[in-house]
Hints:
Layout: H1 6-23, H2 29-49, H3 58-81, H4 86-107
Helix pairs in contact: 1-3, 2-3
Amino acid sequence: xxIRPFADLLAxxxxxxxxxDRVIGPWSPSxxxxxxxxxxxxxxxxxxxxxxxxxxxxxERRDVEGALxxxxxxxxRLAALYDIDxxxxxxxxxxxxxxxxxxxxxxxxxxxxxxxxxxEEGKEA
Length: 125
């Protein structure tokens, strides 16, 4: 599977938008939010209500891929509407999340489970 650069996906979506608007009609912010809600609901139904487990069978994979792509399409259109650099915003979110998680890990590391050495079971320290 070829992974396209994020910027390429954004550009291709922006390129498709004028045709989409001519054929389907332009989307206002409220229409975009309604469409996003519908697409997320579809994804939720696929994953949660059907209690999908890994690995997905081919039909489930196609359905989830399509639903995720539909959500992504609406998010890109919404970002374009408000002139938001989605790639920069996402990169910033990842950096902030990493910093927060690393700080939490330092402040409260996960418990270390010490296993008794072989033959030491039952001995008092």
